[in-house]
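Appendix B. Chain record.
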Amino acid sequence: MKFYLNVVEVAIEHEGKFLIIKRPEGKHAGGLLAFPGGKVEEIDEQNKGDILRFAAKREILEEVGLDLKDDLKYIVSNNFIGSSNAKVPVIDTIFHCKIEKTDLTINPSPREVPEYYWLTEEEINHALNAPEWLKKSVQYIRQTP
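Structure tokens predicted for this chain:
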């Protein structure tokens, strides 16, 4: 039986721009742009109804200090092999959150978010350190009704 590490990401959008973080050096995809998010952890089991959304909101609070009050819409999930020595298979779930009620005061974790930006889809597509999977995730968001 194959076991997967579950991770969640949230495409936080406000006024046509996405909250994008720069991944810390020395971590998976170090130096690349990404949506904020992280691993599903044991504590997320407390929310029996929706573990992935609970994990996503917890990770956003930890990484960028936002207490999301707006709904998270499922976009897509995919898989990849992690870059650690263990080569762990990963399932990555992407959510989209259009901000209407959430206070947008960003308080990034210095350990996890060295830099953050508000970028349009066009800016993401032209950024030299934007990986293809980030660009594809934005395309999925635009195609999802």
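Further analysis of this model is presented in Appendix C.
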